[in-house]
Design goal:
There is one protein chain. Strand 2, helix 3 and strand 3 form a beta-alpha-beta unit. Helices cover about 40% and strands about 15% of the residues. It has a single domain, classed as Alpha-Beta Barrel (TIM Barrel), CATH 3.20.20.370. The two termini are about 30 Å apart.
Length: about 250
C-alpha cells in the first residue's frame, strides 16, 4: 500500500500544479459546479482512469475530505468551516440526503460534493450491474438536491477493483482516496487522537480522510485548521488541488 501510494502521488506531478496568489489569501471560495480549470483537471484524470491519493508536492495546498454524511453533526461542521473561511470536500451517502437535504445544500457554500454511493455498500462484493445501480442512483439523488451531478467519487471502505474502476471511469468520475487517515473511525477515537493523526501527515498535496458523522471529528476541526495555518499551507477542495490555478 505504501509503495502504491508513493507511485500514485509521484505520477500526479504531471498534473498542472497551482501557484499561490496574494489575492487568494489562505482560503479561496470554491465555485460549484466546478470552475472551468477545475473541471478540466478533474476530467483529464477521470478520462485516464486514475485513482488519486494526493496532489503531488509542487504547491502548498492540502485538502480535507469528509465521508459518510450528511448526519446530525454536518450542520455544526459546515458552520465551523464557514466561520473560519475554510473549505473542504464532502463525499455524501445518497440515502442520507433525504433526511438532511438542507445540510447538503449548505455544504455548497464551503465545499465540493462527491459521490460516496447510495447505501455505503462493500462494492467489491457486488455484481457489476448493482455497482452501476448504486453509483447512478447516488448521482441522480445528488442532482435532485444540488441541481448538478458530482464529478468526484470515493469507494466505501477503500474497496475498489477492476469492476468498480471500470464503472467509475465510464461514468467519467474521478476516484479519490487519501494520503492521510485521521482514524476518527477507530474505537476509542478522541479529539486529541484525530488532531494528532492529521497533523502528523500534513504536507503539500495531502488529502485527509475524516468523517462528519462523529462529534469528536467536528470538535477536532478548529485545531486542524489552526495547524494548517501555522504550517503555511493552503486549504482547498480536491477539485482545486488538481486545477491549474486557484
Amino acid at each position: 500500500m505504501k509503495v502504491a501510494l508513493v507511485v500514485a502521488c509521484a505520477a500526479l506531478l504531471a498534473v498542472p500544479a497551482a501557484t499561490a496568489s496574494r489575492e487568494d489569501g489562505f482560503y479561496r471560495r470554491p465555485h460549484v459546479p466546478l470552475q472551468w480549470e477545475q473541471h478540466r483537471a478533474v476530467s483529464l484524470l477521470a478520462r485516464r482512469g486514475d485513482v488519486v491519493y494526493c496532489g503531488g508536492g509542487r504547491s502548498n495546498a492540502v485538502a480535507l475530505t469528509f465521508d459518510d454524511g450528511p448526519g446530525p453533526y454536518t450542520a455544526q461542521l459546515v458552520a465551523a468551516l464557514r466561520a473560519a473561511g475554510a473549505h473542504a470536500t464532502f463525499f455524501v451517502v445518497a440515502n442520507r440526503v433525504r433526511y438532511w437535504p438542507e445540510d447538503v445544500r449548505a455544504e455548497r457554500a464551503v465545499a465540493t460534493i462527491g459521490n460516496h454511493t447510495y447505501p455505503h455498500p462493500h462494492l467489491s462484493a457486488l455484481p457489476p450491474w448493482i455497482v452501476w445501480l448504486e453509483l447512478l442512483r447516488a448521482q441522480s439523488d445528488a442532482r435532485a438536491v444540488l441541481g448538478w451531478k458530482p464529478r468526484l467519487f470515493r469507494a466505501p471502505y477503500e474497496q475498489h477493483g477492476p469492476v468498480v474502476d471500470s464503472v467509475v471511469r465510464r461514468l467519467r468520475l474521478l476516484q479519490v482516496l487519501w494520503s492521510v487517515d485521521s482514524r476518527d473511525w477507530a474505537p476509542r477515537s478522541s479529539v486529541r487522537s484525530v488532531v494528532r493523526n492529521v497533523v502528523a501527515g500534513l504536507r503539500p498535496g495531502a488529502i485527509v480522510l475524516l468523517h462528519d458523522i462523529h462529534p469528536w471529528t467536528v470538535a477536532a476541526v478548529p485545531e486542524i485548521l489552526r495547524a494548517i495555518r501555522l504550517r503555511h499551507l493552503r486549504l482547498v477542495t480536491v477539485a482545486q488541488l488538481y486545477a491549474g490555478r486557484r
